[in-house]
Amino acid sequence: MNIEELISFSKNNLSNQLIDLIIDENNFKVYSKSIINKEETTFSIIKDNLEKFLLIVSQFENQLTNKFDGEKIDNSKSLLIKICKLTNNNRKALQTIFDFTNPTTIGKNDSFGFGDRIGLANAGHIRSLEKSIFKPILAQQSIRELTRTNRTAEEVMDAAVWAVFQEGYKNGFGADADHLKTTADIDLTFNAGFTMFTFDPGEHVDNNADHYDENKLLSVVANLPWKELNDTFPSAERRYLKKNFLISEYLTLQVNETEFLKAYAKYGKAIAHIKKLYEHLKNISNGKPFEVEVSVDETESVTSIFEHFFFANELKRLNVEFVSLAPRFVGSFEKGIDYKGDLKLFENEYRKHLAVTNYFGNYKISLHSGSDKFSVYKVIGSIKGANTHVKTAGTSYLEALKVVAAKNPSLFREIYDFSYGLYETEKNSYHVSADISKLKKENEISDEELLELFSSNDARQVLHVTFGKVLTEKNLNEFLFKEKIIDCLKENEETHYEFLYNHFRKHLEPFE
Ligand SMILES: [Zn+2]
User: Fold this and answer.
1) 295: CA distance to ligand 1 center in Å?
2) Total domain count for the chain?
3) What angle in degrees, to the nearest 10, is found between the helix axes of 409-426 and 394-407?
4) Most buried residue among 139, 162, 188, 261 by CB atoms closer than 10 A?
5) Strand order of the sheet with strand 71-72?
């Protein structure tokens, strides 16, 4: 069939075969899952060498084709063929045409957060979810990570949307503005199109409250911003003291005065701060749907069952609606490695946290630092009726480095050596425990052993905490590693996707 025949054959809709023909003529690779027709115009993602483009084909220029900046290609068939760069503007144009490319709210459904610090992993993430009940949160980045990687919220969104389009993923995805601390953080990410907002009131949590004596507790609590809490100390006492809260068949909560004071001393200001953030978001949202997660996972002290109940109960009283809550659990959720701690104790606590969640009924538990917590997934996966959000980020960066180790060992050696040297200074803002004296130096490792580093907890953490420096360090005006890593991932795209697929299948299977 020649092109003329194809055109008359497909009448108003240019067919997929036509796209294939154009691709063959020009030697592009086409991402077949991306091919889609709309109003006599066909769109798809193609790759020319290492760069990807949006290909638009139509019989005539029309209002859809005019939305995109790109280069028109002369062709003997007098078709409108436009090759467009995957820019921020073109991404926004795409979102006005295909609704499935807009992030959405996920609600109480099981969801999985895939932070992607380099911006090339989301397609692999989407593939890993093929048969899963989990909904993906693709754009997921904290302000801290944006700063560390020198990326903007818009860039993170661009990467997610193009990946969704490339994979033809139409089941809906979320976008999580993670660990927001201020109203300015909210503005920035709301304007970039994020739909999920994770509030982190950590700076307003008093981690010392567990160690205060009665007098100190009383004075801290008396000085809380009661007005902002729409409350008074005496009425708070009436709400909690000498009460039985029947959480479930197996769990009744009572609180003595000390526990009550501790909960307020620890979280009182944090609750007031969340209320402030929530009201700000509601004001600027102008009716656009959004969802909120509340996280206290990065605080030092463990969230007790009563404190979880108290936190949720107070937010409810203040009309703060949230879809997930991330407590600080018992045991250690270190970066990039499995859970450290007593799993039986974790299970007991988790069941109680879950009972509190079910008591309120309108949110799920969120697991931060969720990368590689395989033993914890097993526990949660075995409990029925547990809706969960799992947040991961660093583990995808490690999979990217694994591709580098497999495909460009000498580049990986340089990165490993660089990270090794930086670990002691970079580890400070992370929850990690790697002992580098246990690790071999780069020149003591054979090429075959490089991949084994990814099974070593010490090596994982060394590579994990140094991502910011690895991705931003420059020698004069040139990136030391960033461009080389990106090229390696682009050259080995299918290997990268395959590594991610296998890695996240391991994360998801315990829940299925
Ligand atoms: Zn977190």
Assistant:
1) 7
2) 2
3) 140
4) 139
5) 29-38, 41-48, 51-58, 80-85, 71-72
Domain assignment of residue 482, yes or no: yes
Among 90, 110, 143, residue at a domain's last position = 90
pLDDT tens track for 73-111: 877 778 898 999 999 999 999 999 999 999 999 999 999
> Is this structure's pTM higher than 0.85?
yes
In a domain, 143, yes or no: no
- Give yes or no for a contact between 464 and 335, defined as CB atoms under 8 angstroms apart: yes
- Beta-strand runs (E) in 269-375: 291-295, 324-326, 364-367
Q: Is residue 494 classed exposed, middle or buried when 0-12, 13-18 and 19+ CB atoms within 10 A define those classes?
A: exposed
**Domain limits at 35?**
3-90
| Position 54 in a domain | yes
Q: What are the backbone angles phi and psi of residue 145, rounded to the nearest 5°?
A: -70, -35
- Catalytic residue chosen out of the listed positions 178, 231, 291, 297: 178
Between the CA of 297 and the centroid of ligand 1 the distance, in Å, is 6
Q: Which of 59, 90, 121 is the last residue of a domain?
A: 90
Establish if 502 belongs to a structural domain. Answer: no
* Catalytic residue list contains 293: yes
**Of these residues, 185, 293, 349, 399, which one is catalytic?**
293
pLDDT tens, residue by residue, 223-270: 999 999 999 999 999 999 999 999 999 999 999 999 999 999 999 999
C-alpha span between 470 and 41 (Å, rounded) = 42
